[in-house]
Amino acid sequence: MANIRLDTPEKSAKVLADLLATMEGRLEANPRGTCPVDTTLSLVKMCHAQSCGKCIPCRVGLGTVEDLLEKILDGDGTEQDLELLGRTAETIYLTADCAIGYGAGRMVLDSLEGFRQDYEEHVQHRTCLGRQDQPVPCRVACPAHVDIPGYISLIADGRYEDAVQLVRKDNPFPASCGFVCEHPCEANCRRNMVDDAINICGLKRFACENSGDIPAPERLPETGKRIAIVGGGPGGLTAAYYLQLMGHQVTIMERLDKLGGMLRYGIPAYRLPRKYLDEDINHILSTGVKTLFDVSVGKDFTLEDLRKKYDAVYLSFGAHTSKHLRIRGEETQGVIPAISMLRDVGYDNPPDFTGRTVVIVGGGNVAMDACRTSVRLGAKKVYIAYRRSRADMPALDEEIDGAIAEGCELLELCAPDHVVTGPDGTVKALALRRQIPGEISGGRPKPYDAPDGLFELPCDLIVSAIGQDIEWQRF
Ligand code: SF4
Ligand code: SF4
Questions:
Q1: What average pLDDT does this structure show over 81-110?
Q2: Which of 57, 74, 117, 356 is the most exposed place for a label (fewest CB within 10 A)?
Q3: Is 90 exceeded by the pLDDT of residue 173?
């Protein structure tokens, strides 16, 4: 007679099944803004608990991954730990025998790629983006902490004016930011886990383009306080807007004859049409902000004069001085700072680059603005020389793509060495030295000189775009 066996679930198995069902619900409702490193650790632990232990990558490797994640979460992790985490996860992914192991390895790799910024925040600053006050991740990443979910909902309801007003509560430049903000919010959008980020920046631009004239909010009662703001760029104008709404009387002192600072004199009009910049500025001025043009500290008045005359003084004079290349021949005629070139264009006094070969030195957005502007100024050939590789360029990907699409040639891993001068004392070429990516430092490989890597790139103009400094000497 055959044995008959009835399997009845033991009590412990039943409890475990209930726990898993509860966990399943938790996973589905995983709140936005939770720390992705922490979430990854929980998932790895779950996989590790399910490991049958037959293959070493899963049994031992997942333990190592757990230890590394815990170290990072405790604030003791280093860049090397991040690298080791990636290598260990990859090994598990490639060598584990079943889906428990390789699935966990893949998940850690995806997490490292999708939440790189969160991992680096833990390693570099021992802080957790997910645990900061505002848990909506896109809003945390926005420097102005704009209420992004709020304005997106208003746009969805067709309430474009209200959406723009909501943005202005935290950022008085909605139209300008809709065009030129580097949108760190989008890199943090949780929708990246599904397919791609919500087009947060573009939606703001859409709302601005589709809303009419919006009156400024009502000011609080007059406080009788007078505030001087030195500098009419985005920083000064932002301070002026909110201080004026708080009931103070603000006066902006601007060195040039128009407001906008770097937005007007640093960003070319093809990227930020002046109509939208002027709209933002006019809205700010409509609160009653007073302006003085063509005046500067150290020439027309001293800081002490302002302190005596006003209840408070706010200095917001921007970073308008180009950093030096610090190479031989930098003073040669034909070596120009990107900032002054872009300023001339902003002044409607563009230089003529017709038929010239231009080398832009740098890899940031200013470098991209300079090279794309050079194309528009008639340059025959434009090179971008950058000492690291494209992946490490600080410029936005779309700006680099735009520059290349417009015919600029990117020379990666090439650092400027010296300027070659012709008999007439002008630029003849830029000597560049090929670089080799070295050790990781500050999240990027530190380049060093390749042996015998010196070569000359014939050119007529060299534009330095390696960063700006604050002009503090006058104070
Ligand atoms: S686009 Fe810029 S200003 Fe707008 S929400 Fe994103 S980070 Fe903030
Ligand atoms: S924009 Fe992205 S991160 Fe922000 S609330 Fe929407 S889905 Fe979440």
A1: 92
A2: 74
A3: yes
- Per CATH, domain 33-130 is 1.20.1440.230: yes
Picking from 239, 272, 267, 264, the residue whose alpha carbon sits closest to that of residue 253 is 239
Q: What is the DSSP letter of 191?
A: G
Q: What angle do CA 469, 127, 188 make, to 5 degrees?
A: 75
Question: Which atom from ligand 1 is nearest to the alpha carbon of 184?
Answer: 7
From 350, 342, 397, 403, select the one nearest 378 (Cα to Cα).
350
Closest-CA residue, ligand 1 atom 4, reads 201
205 Cα to the center of ligand 1, angstroms: 11
Region(s) of the chain under CATH 3.50.50.60: 226-315, 322-469
Give DSSP secondary structure letters for 312-340.
EEEE-----EEPP---BTTTSBTEEEHHH
Specify the CATH class of 226-315 in words.
alpha beta
Least Cα distance to 210 among 169, 155, 167, 170 occurs for 155
Q: How far is the CA of 111 from the centre of ligand 2 (A)?
A: 18
ipTM of this complex = 0.90
> Bridge partners of 226?
249
